[in-house]
Each structure stands twice: as C-alpha cells, then as structure tokens.
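Minutes, project check-in
Item: structure for the 286-residue chain
Input as provided by the requester:
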Amino acid sequence: MLTAVREQLGQALFRRVAGPDGPATRARIHHTPGPRWFGPDRPIRTVHGDASMFIGGLSALLLQSLHPLAMAAVAGHSGYRGDPWGRLQRTSTFLAVTTYGTAADAQRAVDHVRGIHERIRGTTAEGVPYHAADPHLLGWVHAAETDSFLRAHERYGARPLDAAGYDAYVADTARVAEALGVSDPPRDRRELSERLAAYRPDLRATPEARAAARFLLFQPPLPLAARPFYGGLAVSAVALLPPWARGMLWLPRVPVVEDLAVRPAGHALTRTIRWAMAPHRQRPPG
C-alpha cells in the first residue's frame, strides 16, 4: 500500500513539473551520450536535482516580479495565468537540459530561449519600453533565480553545500547565464549579493507584481485536496524572500510562527517530495 501511494504521488508530481512528455524528455536528457556543460561532480547538479527547487522556484518568481520591466514582460507575454503548468514545464525542462543534458542539447535549448526573448518587446503601463533580450533585464532574472535556488538549497537541501560549494554553484549558473546573453554574471556568492543590491533602485511592487503574488500564493490552479500541500510550499517560499522584498509585496514576517511552524513544514514537504520521486527499486520475490 505504501509503495503504491509513493508511486502515485511521485508520478503526479513528475507530470506537473515535466508534462506529458516528461518520461521521454528525461530519457533523452540523461541517456544521450556526449559531453556535458557540467560534470557529475558539479554543484549545479546537486542543487538543481534537489526537492528544495520546488520552494526555490516559487520564491524566485515572487522575487523576479519586483522588477517592473520583467513583470510587464511576464504579464504581457508568458501566459502564466492561462497556462501556468505549461510555463512551469518549459522552465523545468530548460533547467534539466542545461544542467544534465548534452552540450549540443543545452546549446539548442539556449538558442530557442534567446529567439523567444528577442521577439518579446513592449511597454509598461507607464509607457516605459522593455525588451526581454536586454542584458540588464536578463541579469536581474538570473540573479534573482540563482539567489532563490541557493537559499532554498541551503535551508532545505538534503545535503547542503559548504561556502566554497555555493560559490561554485554561482559560477556554474554563470555559464548558462552568459549563453543566454547576461553580461558579466556574478561568479561567487559575494558578487551575487552585490549584484542584487545594485538592482534595488530599479525594483518596486507594481499592481501586476502584487496580482501575480496573489495568484501564485492564494489562487493556484490545483484541486482542493492538493492545496494544503501547495500552501506549505508557498509559505516556505515567502519565508525565503529577503525582508525588503517581502515588504514590497505586503507579505509580513511573523518570526515565531516561521521558526516554529514554517521551517519544519518546509523540511517535511521536501522530504516527502524526495521520498515520492526517488527511483523505486522493486524487491526480488521472497
């Protein structure tokens, strides 16, 4: 009975994250021979392969929304409301291909995304023009994502890295960022912190950002039975945000509740995800 529950939960999670073509895509990524951008010992493989990514990814979306130009591009072109799971599946596939796939596959994925970015242009509600291929805008998206994944792994990862390991993780992500068009991405944690601080004057919570936060946190397109599980991920993602970001999004911190309830819940949820999605080895008869 427990094995059946584990398999059903694992399959449901995988379908949500990887989509209907997930099994074929996974086989292509991991079993196609050829050189990779990152060897098996690289920190990016450790971080991106951990269940903490569920929390880090949601936290990254909230943080990224605070750049008005990035949020305008997402609101106008990504279809995150109409097809949120499709967007998640495309993002997770890109991360998997660039982290674990062959170098040729990774380059094709990057070229595809760069082509999409090149076509995304528009203006904000205030009339400010934006272009998704702008290196400065790409730099914000990259820095916010990298910091969120790192924070989530540091707090909820099965095997947290040491300081040198997280510096190496930032350096690994810079390889992908440069391929996407980011100019001089940060290569260690100190540079990442400095880069995030440099973007602070550009950031504010627009009505679109707060609407996105409400959608992500309170209106997920999920059946009622799954919402308590998602709610645990959501509060854990909010707790990861820097205090200034939470203030902008009107998401106050409650220290005692977070220390006594939110963090333990995040650990319990990530352990459950690992248990459900770990490869199942069938026992031999007898």
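Outcome recorded: The two ends are 17 Å apart (CA to CA).
No further action items on this chain.
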